[in-house]
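Run log, item B.
One chain of 153 residues. Sequence copied directly from the ordering sheet:
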Amino acid sequence: MATGVPQYRRPTVQAVLPGSAVLPAPPAVSACTGAGPGGVVGKVAQYDTVTVPVRHGLEAVDILRLRRACGAVQQIAGGSAIAFLVPPGTALRWHLPGSTCTSGADLLPPTDPHWIIPPSGPQHRARPTDAWVLRSALCEAATTLTAGGLGPL
């Protein structure tokens, strides 16, 4: 098992017993535009957003790409910040100086040039970055920038 690489488990299919009720799936929300059944675009609750300054964020993106663990990343705030999409619920337990984590995400269209790592696949689904792997990469990026004379952040 490699160190620093997230280990993902494949979801197992659970058998449905005869006579048990199966609930219908909720209306789908497009992960790339945040458009719901009525075509409304806005904040998507499927993700939380971790925001860091641009230099720190780009260094973390490089680290995550080397680990093959980088999800969708976008540039926000007029180019002065980087936003990582993370799983929902991360904002409740995120405490890392130099970064903020907010619930929900304002997603851009998949062809917007502000995506650093755009959503991919045939449905342009944005893949979130694992929160603990991101935290590790942000700490490593801070150490690298400080050692290179570009810190403190």
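Observations after the first pass:
- The radius of gyration is 17 Å.
- Residues 131-147 form the longest helix (17 residues).
Flagged for discussion on Thursday.
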